[in-house]
Amino acid sequence: MHTRAAPKIITAYSFAAKPREPLVGPDGKPRVLRGQIERDSELWRWRNEVLQGGDAGEDAVVVVRSADERAVVMAVADGVGGWAEQGIEPAKYSNALLYYLTRGINSAATVPTPRELLEYAFYHTQDDAGVEVGSSTACVVRLDSAQGVLASANLGDSGYILLRPDAEGRLQTVYLSPAQQYTFNCPYQLSKVPPEYKDSITNYPRDADLKEHELRAGDMVFVATDGFFDNVHCKLPPPEAMTPDAPKRPELLQLLDMLQDKHAEHWKDTGDPMDRHRDFVRVVCSTLLQYARLCQTAQEKVSPFQIEAARNRLFYPGGKVDDVALCCALVVDA
Asked: Domain PPM-type phosphatase: where (predicted)?
């Protein structure tokens, strides 16, 4: 009797920082934010290893595998940019969260639940004297191929989407996480707030939205910050925002249809299946990131952010320029 091998999880991640104008103080002189990630510190080295010298702006991202390769954790965090107005670097808090989350995975015998990881990351960041102040959204997704389970903890307006192929091989949406917001563009956020900032928004890991889903071979999972979801339609817009000839398939799924077709033609009858899957995930991740960045500056395209702004009686044409962090995973039979 043969035991069927657990499916494999193939991952990729990508990121991009939005353009930033030099900060200038009231006296007209360059302004340096306090609370920068200290060069050559453990946090700096971790971030540099994850980003390979790149720049994710105020976002943080990480993908961590268990020692036995059966579980993968994908996580993103979006530092709240409003702290820059107070002279504080927003990226330190979001990166500290995912740094400690990584330590929480590596120090455990088995991969903890997403909520446990969020709690570990939050309270260790609270105890870190080197992190003075900050806030961040966070989305943590654990994929367990041995158990066939996706578990998540999402707090704020980062999020994830689970897709599954239909009988024709086209990806369909199984679940799209909703944003947690107090008001429009004001998300739930984990925070470290000293007494002088006591009026700032503060949430805790217990406030995260917890979910579990069945995980099957063929599934794709995307975890991203709001710089992606604010610019790429992952669900159909409301009827009043659609023209009669508009496609009946969400923008994200249309893009994936195109990428599936082009990739299948490129790899037709060639290459090792695992190499083909790995290349597909890399291509999808990098292409979706670049597409989201293009959408940010497209004034003629109605973005998800524009639609939400209109619901709140605000006029915000086109895309929303922001940092983007994106993780992608594909579950394949071993």
From this structure: 45-288
